[in-house]
Fold each of these.
Amino acid sequence: MKDKAERTVIAIERVTKRYGALKAVDAVSLDLAEGEFFALLGPSGCGKTTLLRAVAGFVRPDEGRVLLDGRDMTPLRPNKRPINMMFQSYALFPHMSVAANVAYGLEVEGVDRRETQRRVGEILEMTHLSDFASRKPDQLSGGQRQRVALARALVKRPRVLLLDEPLAALDKKLREQMQLELKRMQEEVGVTFVVVTHDQEEALVMADRMAVLRDGVVQQVGAPRTLYERPANRFVAGFIGKMNVFRGEAADGGLRVSGRLIRGDGDLAPAARPIAAVRPERLRLVDAPPADGDDAENALPGRILDIAYHGQDMNVRLSVEAAEDPVIVRLTADAAEAGDWSPGREVWCCWRREHTRLLADG
Amino acid sequence: MPRSLLRDWILLGPGLTWLALLLVAPCAIVFFFAFFERGVYGGVDYVFGFDNFGRAFDPLYLSIFLKSAKIAGLATLVALLIGYPAAYAIARAAPRRQTVFLVLVMLPFWSNYLIRTYAWIVLLNREGLINQALTALGLINEPLSLLYNEFAVVTGLVYNYLPFVILAIFASISRLNPETLEASEDLGASSVRTFFRVTLPLTIPGVAAGAVFVFVLSIGNFITPDLLGGGRIQMVGNIIYDQFLTARDWPFGATLSMMLIGVMMILLFTQAMVVRRMQGDREGAHA
């Protein structure tokens, strides 16, 4: 984990970008720290790519500024910014060899030939591309092309590397492998990485910190663990991972659901419709409710609808009166074997108080 | 015969027959004539020999070949210089405007080639619209000689073949991935540098196709030099025309035709090689 007190490299100050009547990015402010791996996460159309392109210089904000090391970069063209981008399509130059692609940015900068060769060799080694230096992009696999794009951007030693959906074009297995590879490389070069992704798992695995965007507005910023375990609102709770949601009425510092008081943390704004949210892996199934005096446990009755066996765990779907959708309980192999869980059975699902988020439904 | 092969032959049949009857056969006849002699009253004396080829390399005819190549080359160059920026602008325009521009590019084809060429006579002659306008503006005292010279011929050729150049280059540019150009800028290149290092190299196939098109059609053209050159500009096409229809020396006309076809074939082959080099080695070595 990185030290939060590190200094700011990029400051995004109230950046707004409109397309006609639509606000693609709406007064977004973010500080990106030196050397951190930051993820911009959100569904398609949330404005994350527009925001990334505003940092790169391809989008001129209607309002707000982008500062790099305290200097206003907003009027600068992309070629004047010490920031490089890895494009979603990789955008390799098809008429140039791998080595020429990687050398391009240095040649343009006027770095002398020998230095260029040295740095290109170095980065190709680091990205395991040395054997492919003379190949053309179309003679490479998807994973290799992705590494060329990365090498081409990193060889410039940018202050910040922007990555637009860097793994979207790869198949699932390669993607998982590359998540760790990207993380390793980021730690090796120590450059600030800003990655745009719609894949929450990708963000959770790679990022030191992440921001969730919706309709151009930042919903929450924080470490992946914070966003997963302490989502600020219903949207974040539902976008990252699976979340069970119970409806009720705010009462006695908790939520009254089907006559039982659900306790947890989070504050319930009095006006909004309050909900209690809990992750599937935090739920347990028992035959009888806990004793009435137990403040640490929440419990609700339900009936088992069906069971999905996943090998490493088992998902039990319950019909619970106060829940909007069937409640999902993820049982480990041990927990699954501990009881007789079959469809139609009346059971209780219970979970610990500290695993409950009380939220306003926004 | 495998079914797919049979199907290919059936589908190709009409096209191949058409080409065989109307292209291969006439070419073969022309090729055949090239080795014989002119009859006393026209027609062909079937005495085999290479005399015609010796005659074709006479400095007189060679200079006409070179002059034709120069005019065609000039037309090609001008067409590319005008066509590339236009194609670039159209490819970068919003889709709706793109359609309008493309229709405008094709608009001249709605009228006849001869009529369009005659229109240039109206524009370029001493009392023509251009001279009148320039005189009225006080820019010139005497009318310029714009017609019946090389300038007029090149203008006419460029005008007629420009749409093909624009379409060929437009196709190439619109196939470019815009992120490739952004990547160049992102890596520090100015827009001028991006154009010469990325855009232009990647659109060379379109440029080559357009260039060969203009050059091949120009070097063999005889109507435009006839009408806009006023008989003062002789191109290969005019000589061949004269050999067949005025001098009635079919064998020599055939020889000149063969040489012209040879030049065109070399150019088309070169263009195919350029395109193959740009695309072939990218698709080729995947395995």
Amino acid sequence: MDKQEQQSEATTNRAISKRLVLGCGALVHELVALTRQTPELKEAITLQCLPAKLHNTPQLIAGEVEKHLSKNAHKYDDIFVAYGDCGTAGALDAVLEKYNAQRVTGAHCYEFFAGSQAYEDIVEDQLGSFFLTDYLVRNFDRLVVEGLGLDRFPELFDAYFKHYTQMVYLAQTESVELQEMAKAHAESFGLEYKYQFVGINGLSAVTSPAIKSAFQIEVLDSSVQPINAHSPA
Amino acid sequence: MSDNEDFNLNDLDDKELVEQIQDDLYDGLDEEVFEGVQILLGREWDANDVLGDALVGGMKIVGEDFRDGILFVPEVLKCAAAMKGGMGLLRPILADSSIDISLGKFVIGTVKGDIHDIGKNLVGMMLEGAGFEVIDLGINNPVENYLAAIEEHSPVIVGMSALLTTTMPYMGVVIEEIERLGMSNDFHMMVGGAPLNQEFADAIGADAYGRDAARSSEMASNYIEAQRA
């Protein structure tokens, strides 16, 4: 292979050695932070997010993800979806299978942020645990109060919360301001407040070795065909 | 649907009033639904007809729009509250009625370790609207609660709900125990809840999986109708 051919192949590899990270809008801060932790991934990862309000309508998530992937998946050779199952009852996984895409392991962001065992321990300790993340603390009024219709129908409060006893803030950052806000949210709902810093490592799969490997192949060894070359079914 | 129009429900003829109750139910107007049911009963309507034509008819539309993503949980909970008000008037009359139009008893409960009941309550309300007598065991139910309810009520269907991936396997524990006791042919076993799917329901030996409240109610009714055909 002469130099020109090598350059041509390197260009081809560069064009397809890309990962699409399609995330829940509620995770955008954390996803950006993760990619910034590994600057060399900046060009390899394209981050796109769907509206966070889908959190309240899980039956729509799989359809919205599919709509997005059907238009965009062909532009990438590796797709990672930053969602848990998120109440889709397997429907999201069925879509991901079609596009040979991966997602974060876990039922929802509370589980993958806290870690499965820690999450189970909290729930086992107090069945009535309502969870917050940084995003939910910041957007509590929009996603929880308005999202559940409590602004329009405050009489529904008991229907949603009568069995809850505590509000657990699983923090991605150590922000005093957010902790104060979370505490105030718990108080406004008459729930005990519990704080646990969990960080963002639960999402670290979005920068998993597969993409690092593909990136390195693209940059360091243009004669090797890139792995993870997927196209939609 | 009803706006803030100022009119007297008594002025409506029967057909208009039934339609108005359905509209008010859709809009979650509990006082108006209650009043409409009262008026129909005052006009010597049979309680079964009030239930079937006004409330069940209205809830059918609510169920379809919920299924199709037109209505969401807050609105459906309001509808449920309005339905509950109307049912409160009808239930004592229906209990005394010599005519049994009930589709049978449906025991429903959230499984052990789980306190989530919004989905279960919506299913219960839809089932009641469809004509089942619903025995609601509430939340956090160990297998003993299901067995006791089966013993006491002889249901045609037993339904279990779970919202957590950590609690949904307990449904399998209940089904196993029911099978061990040789009771699995005595009633239909349905399961539902956000993290479940058909594969899971099949794996634990459930007879049916209800994807959402409207479908669950529809499936339960279809099962009974098929049994009776």
